[in-house]
Design brief:
By secondary structure, the protein is an alpha+beta fold. The chain contains 16 helices and ten strands. The strands form three sheets. It has a five-stranded mixed sheet with strand order 1-2-8-5-3. The protein is globular.
């Protein structure tokens, strides 16, 4: 099948560089004229794009739409175009983004213990410390690239700490993750090599932690994953009792049947899904605030008064307005179904366009307006249903901390250059800026911000 636009209109061009800069007009056209739209993706794979909020919410929770690429009807060689480059060769397929119940239920239950509100709250001081340390590195310079210098390293170091990656190895992770971001929309070879290196490192780290656990004293009660690493008095290299990977290994060894391969895949996807989404949340969110001065001033006034309600609703609005994930990850029809009036065949890929659904005027009043105080904001930025983003509480914490600290410590922060010169990374799933050059008065002994 080919594109079948509305008979009286021409479907907009999708996936060009111009489209990447501002996809929202094209998505508005699709919502109105072709809300479930069959198209050929840049990879050559044909897929359905779902753009209306009601259809998107239905599709995200529909059990007939599987996350497992085995259900794709394309030839075997094409299936490599529907996931993370290199994950198939690196045996990383058995992770939460690619599986269905009951395996999904089992693995999600294991790892969800790391992302409870209590655990995330315990991690807040470490996120604030990382945020301040990164700003310290450029605050005296008067200029920075907020993607490279801030939005990118913050979630990398945070998720490495949470997983239990030793500090001396974390810059390797930063390099591998940087390769993924730089080449995510282009040549897949560099990404695949980085994935392979990450997989090999994680397998070795899991092996070392398992050995350390076997020599450790009696573990804490089953069901409790321990607190964040680098608690006061702990060494730089996390002990076997304090990080997420050790918790997963312990659960596995106590009968939860988590294979070493599943543990490595789980660690990889937490890193992969947990860092780029937050890079884009901080980058896109900062850019939106810098280009909406009234909303920025409103937030700064709230923060100066010691209030954080507007910060919380504001981050949700930034997720809705120009969120980090443009399209939800791949789904495949396990049997024929009808969605938005279109018949979808078994084996067809379905991509839910979160960016389009979150600007649907049928669901959101004035959807193209940024309103940090928006209350009725059930956006789909973190998905919906059983695959709702597990790390959403941590991402919210990082986003709130990063934005509040930037605005507080660098109050005259502004874009350096013309917004029209900014470039967005090409790619299918994520939406984020390549760079975000800013300038400000160099910081002169301003006190550190407190944890939001």
């Amino acid at each position: 099948m080919t594109d079948q636009p509305h008979p009286h209109h021409t479907a907009p061009e999708l996936f060009s560089w111009e489209f990447a800069t501002n996809p929202y007009p094209a998505y508005a056209w699709l919502r109105e004229h072709e809300p479930v739209h069959r198209t050929r993706l840049p990879s050559g794979v044909e897929a359905w794009l779902v753009t209306r909020y009601a259809d998107a919410k239905q599709a995200l929770a529909d059990p007939r739409l599987s996350k497992n690429p085995a259900h794709h009807d394309e030839p075997a060689h094409a299936k490599g175009k529907t996931g993370i480059p290199g994950e198939r060769k690196a045996e990383l397929m058995t992770h939460l983004l690619n599986i269905d119940p009951p395996d999904h239920t089992r693995l999600r239950r294991l790892v969800s213990k790391a992302f409870t509100p209590r655990r995330v709250a315990e991690f807040a001081p470490r996120v604030q410390e990382l945020t301040n340390d990164l700003i310290d590195r450029f605050a005296a310079e008067g200029s920075a690239d907020l993607i490279h210098d801030f939005a990118f390293p913050l979630p990398i170091y945070a998720i490495c700490d949470l997983l239990g990656v030793p500090r001396e190895d974390q810059d390797d992770f930063r390099d591998w993750a940087g390769m993924m971001i730089r080449h995510g929309g282009g040549p897949r070879g560099g990404v695949a090599r980085s994935v392979k290196k990450m997989r090999a490192y994680l397998a070795d780290l899991i092996h070392r932690k398992r050995e350390a656990l076997s020599d450790a004293p009696t573990p804490p009660p089953a069901g409790n994953l321990p607190g964040p690493p680098d608690a006061p008095g702990t060494p730089d290299t996390p002990t076997p009792t304090e990080d997420l990977l050790s918790g997963l290994i312990r659960a596995s060894d106590q009968g939860e049947h988590l294979t070493e391969n599943e543990a490595a895949a789980m660690a990889f996807i937490l890193l992969f899904a947990g860092f780029e989404t937050t890079v884009n949340l901080i980058g896109n969110g900062t850019y939106a605030l810098l280009t909406h001065p009234e909303q920025r001033a409103r937030l700064e006034k709230s923060l100066a008064a010691g209030e954080h309600g507007l910060l919380e609703t504001g981050v949700e609005e930034l997720l809705r307005y120009d969120g980090p994930v443009e399209l939800a990850t791949w789904r495949f029809a396990t049997r024929p179904l009808t969605l938005g009036g279109k018949d979808i065949a078994a084996g067809d890929p379905v991509l839910v366009v979160l960016a389009a659904a979150d600007r649907d005027p049928e669901r959101f009043a004035d959807p193209d307006v940024l309103d940090l105080g928006r209350r009725d904001n059930q956006h789909l930025g973190y998905g919906h249903g059983i695959h709702y983003c597990l790390g959403a509480p941590l991402a919210r914490l990082e986003g709130q901390t990063a934005l509040a600290t930037l605005l507080t410590r660098l109050p005259d922060l502004q874009l350096a250059g013309d917004p029209a010169d900014l470039r967005w990374r090409g790619g299918l799933i994520m939406r984020g800026l390549r760079t975000l050059p800013v300038e400000f008065t160099p910081e002169r002994l301003r006190p550190h911000a407190q944890t939001p």
